[in-house]
Structures are given as structure tokens and as C-alpha cells.
Amino acid sequence: MSFEATITSIHRMTPRVKQFVVERDEPFEFEPGQHTNVEFEQENPDEDEDAEVSRPYTATNTPGNDAITLAIKRYDDGTASVYMHDRDPGDTITLAEFHGELSLRDTDEDVVFVSTGTGITPMMAMLKQYLEEGTGEAHFLYGEKNQENLMYRETLDQLASEHDNLSLTFSLSDEDWDGRTGHVQDHVEDVLDDLDRHFYVCGVPQMVVDTKEHLADLDVPEDQVFSEGWEDGEVED
User: Which pTM value belongs to this model?
Assistant: First the structure.
């Protein structure tokens, strides 16, 4: 079932990412990590009818409020991302009910969140839930190309300062800096004392597949690694 919601504020996070606060008259209910879909019609010059567009985006906040936050990266050849980046505060958009397989399985387990790019969005929601409900240690690994494109860094630093059970690792693939460099998943065994934890992974399909393979090489059981689940089919052998 689809419903309408209103964009109440827009904040530019990085040169290509905007955060949208979207509100409606009743609370949003979902499992942190799940996604909604932005739905709209786009003119199709080759057809008599407009084309229906539906693209998934994940709320970065926890449920139970009448507002959600969506962080959306604009792609020049994109459809929904361009549509959203052209919106203004006060505009109404159509959203679908939340769904998806990525959510916390057990808040009593130690957890590791591994993400790159906008794959950080479900991780932010799940991290906030874990810091509210979890009883173990959380390690958050996030990779980007450069510091300019790091999302939610100030928020993560603030959360780490408030919660002794949260550790952060940032890694940049295209910039020399004082922190770690290269693929973020390659640092898993360097920053963890042990690997007996639940791992949550999100990013472009190749990164997710590579991370799951790397964890398998480190003898992390498959039933301790969680992702959306569709990534394997998107990566060619």
C-alpha cells in the first residue's frame, strides 16, 4: 500500500548526497534497516502512458515517529535520485510500505556493521537501535573514496563519544590521510579482537559479495553474516 508524505526539510550532506526529512500524520512503523520505495510517474516519449518508477531508500532513523530521514545520492543518469534532488521543502511524495530482509537479528550478540557509500543508511538505523537495546559491543566500519564524501561522520563521532561499547573504523580508497586506506572489509581482522560476532553488510553488490567471501575465508560462519540477500545475483562470476 502506498501513501503520501511531505518533505519538510532538505540538507546537503556531501557534494552528491542530500538528506530529506519526510513527515506524515501518523508514525512510521518498520524494522530499522528496512527500506521504503519512492514512487512516481515519469513521462515516456516512446509510449502513450507515463512510466511508473519505484526505487528503494532506507530510513536512517528508528521507527515510531511521524518523520523519517532519507539520505539520497544523486546520479546524473539516475531516475529517482534526480527526481528527489529536484524536490523542495513542502513537496509531497509517494512512498510504499517498508519492507526488506536487513534488520538486527539479536541485540544480545556483539555486532559489526560493514558498509560503503550510501550502504551506510540501513546501518545508521540499526546502529541506533543497537545502542538503545543492545547488550554487547558494536564496531562500525565505513568505507568511502575520500573525506569529502564521508556521510554521518559527525553523528558517528558523537555516538561513539556517548557510548563506550561503540568503536569506529573509517577507510578511504582514493585519498591518503591519517586513517586507514583501501577496501574497508580488508580491515575486519585488524580491528576486531575476535570474529565471533554478527556481521551486517551493505553497499554496492560487488562490495557485499567480496565482504561475505572475505568473512568466509576468515572462518566466520555463514549464519552470522547478514545482508539484503539479492547481491549475489547482481555480480557476474
Answer: 0.93
